[in-house]
Specification:
Blueprint lengths: L6 H11 L5 E5 L2 E6 L1 E9 L5 E8 L6 H5 L4 E2 L10 E4 L6 H15 L2 H9 L1
Antiparallel strand pairs: 1-2, 2-3, 3-4, 4-6, 5-6
């Protein structure tokens, strides 16, 4: 369900794996990014709708969730959407600073305090 040579996946890996204690695990045929718990998933789909192989699923800051959903680049992913997750469609020219900020917020929602302290000390 993914190609290791996908340049967009490569960029996502750079961003996600730069976070303290972050690891990559393939689960259900897709790369997932974890710090104990999952904070990112590469690729997703809309329930009963299209597959978005070049996207990142993440846990948004609750205060930003509705605003993000009003942007057409974001979608409610199958399976994880009911648990608060969102998906962002990615392209080569995506705003990678924005991707980093979204993954940072998602990471902070699941990472242990020591990992967050290490991130803040950087």
């Amino acid at each position: 369900m993914f190609d290791d040579a996908d340049p967009i996946l490569g960029r996502v890996r750079e961003v996600a794996l730069a976070l303290p204690e972050a690891t990559e695990v393939v689960a259900h045929g897709r790369p997932t990014f974890r710090c104990g718990k999952m904070f990112g998933n590469y690729g997703g789909m809309v329930k009963g709708g299209p597959r978005h192989d070049q996207s990142i699923l993440f846990i948004p800051d609750a205060a930003e969730r509705e605003a993000l959903l009003s942007d057409e680049r974001f979608f409610l992913p199958a399976y994880l959407g009911p648990y608060g997750w969102l998906g962002l469609l990615l392209e080569e020219d995506s705003d990678w600073t924005e991707v980093g900020e979204l993954l940072d917020a998602s990471y902070r929602s699941v990472a242990p305090k020591r990992a967050i302290a290490e991130l803040d000390a950087r």
